[in-house]
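Here we describe the complex-level prediction in full. Unlike the single-chain runs in Section 2.1, the three entities below were treated as one system.
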Amino acid sequence: MQDLTQLLRETAEDLLKRKAVGVVIGYGHTGSRGDMTAVFARTPQQVSQLALDGECYRNLAVYLNKPEVRKLGRCAIVVKGCDRRAINVLIRENQIAREDLHIIGITCEGVGDPKMQKCRFCTVHNPPDCDTVLGDPVDIEPEEGEFAAVEAFETKDIDARWNFWKEKLKDCIRCYACRQVCPLCYCKQCVVEKNIPQWVETSSHLRGNVMWNVMRAFHLTGRCIGCGECERVCPVGIPLGLLNQKLIQQVKDKFEFTSGMSADEKGPFSTFDLGLDTDDGIL
Amino acid sequence: MTDPREKLVVGAGWQEKLVDALHGDNVRVLAPVLTEGTAEFREISAAAEMATEWINTRTPVKAVLFPRTEALVEFERRPGEDVQFTAADNEAVPTVVLGARPCDLNALDVLDTVFNWDYRDKLYAERRAATTFVGVACTRSDEACFCTGMGGRADDNEGSDLFVRPMPDGGAVLEVMNERGAALAKRLDGAAPAVGTEELVPPAQVGAGPFDTEKVKEWLDTHFDDDFWTDMSLKCLGCGACSYLCPTCHCFDIVDESDWRKGQRRRNWDCCSFAQFTKHASGHNPRPEQHSRCRNRIMHKFKYFIDRFGRKACVGCGRCIRVCGAGQDLVDILAEITTAAS
Amino acid sequence: MEAIQTTSTADDDEQTTFEPRIVAFLCNWCSYAGADLAGTSRLGYPPNIRIVKLPCTGRVDPLFILKAFERGADMVLVSGCHPGDCHYTSGNYHARRKLPTFRSLLEFMGIDPRRFQMSWVSAAQGGKWSQVVADITALATELGPFEYFERIRDNRN
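The structure predicted for the assembly as a whole is:
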C-alpha cells in the first residue's frame, strides 16, 4: 500500500498547489497512538500526513456536512466504495453538489483486521464516478448471507426480541455519537432537539431511549448504506447495525432498492411503484 | 497519597465476608461486573459476581452520585384542582462502592467542589453522605491511561474511604482513610488473616504523557483566539461520548416531561460539545462552531477550573480517548499545546 | 377486506373489563368522512377509538405512532383513501410504503405488529368503518393492555 500512499500524496499536492480544492479530506496515522483518523490537508506541506492502508475503516463522508469543513473551500475527499455510496445519498438529497467535490476513490479489498462484517458482502470494491481512482481494480464476489444476522435474530419470539432490545437500550446514555458520526444524519435540528412539542424525550430512561433509537433507525430507512459507523462508535455497545440491516433488508425485499448505488436514484419513500406495492396487511 | 489512619492485612475471602456483612446491614453493594467484555458498576448479591480482572469501568463512578437522568419533582393536575407538586422518590440508598479506581475517586473532589460551591446540591450531597468508596489500586493499565500526568498514581489512596492494595493470593492490605472507612473495616473483624508475607501485586506502570500541565495552563491563559482550536477541532464530530463518560464532567440540563395531566421535572447529563448547549432562546449561539465548543472543553478542564477552584478538572482516566469515534486524543492535544508553549 | 383472526369468544368477553384505547389517524377526505357517514347512518361501533384527523395518510410520521404508544395507546390505526383515490394523488401510495415498513421495524424490536393496523375506508364506506373498528377493538381487547411503555415508565435507572 506504500506506493498508493505516495500516489495519494502526489494527487493531493497537485490539487492543493493548483488551488483546485481548499482541503483534501483523507486518512492518516495521526497522533502518538498512530490510529488511522481523519486528516484535513489544506496546504501542499500537509499532504505528508495522508496515508492509505487496511485501517481506513472510517467513513469520511460525514465531514462533508460539517460547516467548519465546508468553509475550507472545495473539498477533495478520499473514499472507499461504501463511503462513495454515502456521497451518492448526499447528492440525491441535495446536500452537496457533485461538481463541488473532487472524489479520490480507492479500490478496496475490505478494511480492518479481521475484515469488517460489511466488507464480506460489499458490492462496490471499485468506487464508481470518481475524479481520481487509486489502486488496481478489485474483483471479489460478495459472500452469501448478507442478512444472516437479521435472520438469526428473527428466530427469537416476540418477547425475547423485546427483552433483548430492552437490555441493550437501557444502557444508552444519549451521547448521540451514532447520529454525529452518520454521514446521512445531517439535519440542522434533529427531531430530538425539537421541544414544542417534545416528540422524543431527552432523558436517558428506557422510555426515551426506545423512542430515540427506533426513530434514529427509521429515519435512515432507504438511506443507510450500512457503513456501520454508528455501531462502531457507540460507547455502550448497542448493536445499532442490526436495526439498520433489518431496514436495508426490508427495502431490498419490498422495493428492490439498495441505497447509494447512484446519485440519480430516488429514495424508496419519495417514490412508489404500482407494480410492486401491495395492500398486504392493510384492512 | 495520604498516610492512612490504620492498616489492615486480610487474607483471601475478605470480599465475600465484607459483601455478606453489608447485605446483612441492608446496604447496597455496587461493584464492577463484567458484561460482554466491559466492566460496569452493578449491584451485586455475592462477591463472586465482581470482576477480578478489569482496567476500569466503562461508566465512571460519578454516575453513582450524579446519575445520567433523575427525577427532581413530580407534578399532577386533577380535574378542578390546582397543580400538585411532590418531591420525586430519589432518597439516597446506603451504598458501598467496591472496586472504584483511584482516578475516578480523585475526580470526586471535582464533583464535591462543584456541587457544594455557591449552592449545596441536596441530591448529590445526600448520595455522597450515604456512599462509602472502597478504592482498589490498579494492577493493570492500558495505553489510554495517563493518570500520572495529572498528578495521580495507579495506587493513589486519595478519595477512598477504604483503600485496597491487592496481594497475589487474593489477600490485601487495606488502608483505612477516614471514619467511614473505619466503620467498613470493622465489618471485617474476624476475616481470615493473611498468609505469608505482605507482598503486593505491583501497581500498574502508567506513563505520564508528553505534556506539562503548567505550560498548558500558561498557554491557555493567553490563547483564547488561536488557529490551533480550528485545527484540533476539525476532526471532532460533536457528540457527547467524551463528556458523558468523563469522571469529572458535571454539566446538566433540566427538562420537563409530561402529558396533559401529569409529569416530572428531570435532571439529565448535558455536554458542551453539543451545538445546542449554549444556544439562547433568541436563536443566538455564543459558541456557534465546533472549535469554540472544543476549546471550551479544554479550557474548562485545564484553565477555568484551576482559576476558580485551584485544581485541574481531569484525572487522566483515558475514557475520552477510548470512546472517541473520531480518534480525538486528549494526550496529543495537551502535548501539542505544550510544544506550542515551549 | 381480510378478516382479523381472533380467538376470543363471548364467554371470554364477559370476564374482562379491559377497555383498549385505540388511537386512529384518519385522512380528512376518505376515512374521516367514512366515520362521519357511519355516524349519520346510525351504524354503531365501539367507543374505544380516539380519532385524530390529518389531511392525508401521507402526513403520518411514524413518530406519531410511537408517541401514541408511549402515551398509553393499546393500538394505533391509520386509515385513508383507497389506492387511486388520494385527494393529493399519491399520499396514500407513500403511506403504503412507509408505514408497513415501520411495522416490520416494530416487529423486529419485539413489539406485536398487530398493535399497528392500517385500513382503506372511503367516504362511502360507513359500514366498513364500523366493521373495522369493531374488529380491531376485539383484537385489541384480546391482545390486552400494551404495557411496554407502561412497564418502562418507571424512570429510575
